[in-house]
Predict the structure.
Amino acid sequence: MGEDCLFCKIAAGQMDTEFLRETDSLVVFKDIHPQAPVHLLIVPKKHIRSINDLEEEDRGIVADLLFTARKMAADQGIDKSGYRLFFNVERGGGQLVFHLHLHLIGGWK
Ligand code: AMP
Ligand code: ZN
């Protein structure tokens, strides 16, 4: 676990955050400051700082993030209406929490 990493603590169940989904490799929870009616964060349990720090061995994790995003969009009923998936990468890209996470937003009328 990254020292004092917020998303490591959340993923380890230390922050009382409600998970919409949990698997061996990741957790999904609601963003605390939603930018859209649906705003979920899909977060690997492994501490990876950003997209820049992915290693070859993380290919399975990346696939899990994307397949889970697709499933969560369907679960939330926004797959057909449409949604956005994005990673903010490093400070210039808007990253504030330095533990890899995939944003899923949608649900606009
Ligand atoms: P980023 O700018 O890509 O690093 O996104 C970090 C996201 O984490 C922001 O959208 C925050 O609103 C969200 N966030 C920060 N703290 C929490 C928390 N305790 N629970 C849920 N989401 C959080
Ligand atoms: Zn972490």
Residues 2, 5, 7-8, 47, 99 surround zinc ion (ligand 2) (CB under 6 Å). The longest helix spans residues 59-75. The chain has a mean pLDDT of 97.
